[in-house]
Amino acid sequence: MTDNTQLEITFLKQAVEKQFARRLATSADFAALSEDLEESLSPSTLKRLWGYVGMEVEPRTSTLDVLSRYVGYRDWRAFRAGLLNSSFSSSAYFNSERIDSQELQAGDVFQIGWRPDRIVTLKYLGNQRFRVDASENSKLQEGDEFTVSSIVKGFPMIIPEIIRDNKPVSSYIAGREGGIIFIKKS
Fold it and tell me: How far apart are CA 140 and CA 131, in angstroms?
């Protein structure tokens, strides 16, 4: 999935929540949306798409078609074409789950993940600094430290410089394809 496709799916999910008139945040919300759809999508399919259970998965086009029709488009292709003619095409405000360093306390721990199977546990050190406490299938290593102001679900995390063994390491991008797909706060 390309970064553009991930962004388009994010816009579709926002449009669905706007049409549904509430944010999808509980199992009951997903069940209610499933019932509200004129075409059948199970609550579990919706939960996976929204990343409510486990890691987000790449949705089927048929799922995106149903949601596109729910928000007034013929299908997913028409929704995407509509984005090109909207204010979303070059710049837009967005609402996504995120970790903002200014809202953290030193010692806070959380996990992030990206495709295909990367999971990293981070500890906030203060002053926008993070340390990698555990790393599964990632090039980030335990003990690495870096500075970022925020980590946003659905978008890549760009690290200008990693400090490894007290030495600077090259820049790094986590989730280049599809962005950060889950943030799990401890």
Answer: 10
Mean pLDDT confidence for 148-162: 91
Domains of the chain: which residue ranges?
3-89, 98-185
pTM of the prediction?
Answer: 0.56
Annotate the chain with three-state secondary structure: CCHHHHHHHHHHHHHHHHHHCCCCCCHHHHHHHHHHCCCCCCHHHHHHHHCCCCCCCCCCHHHHHHHHHHCCCCCHHHHHHHHHCCHHHCCCCCCCCEEEHHHCCCCCEEEEEECCCEEEEEEEEECCEEEEEEEECCCCCCCCEEECCEEEECCCEEECCEEECCEEECCEEECCCCCEEEEEEC
- Which range has the worst mean pLDDT, 44-53, 85-94, 148-157? 85-94
Q: Quick one: how far is CA 51 from the chain centroid? A: 8
Burial class (CB in 10 A: 0-12, 13-18, 19+), 119: middle
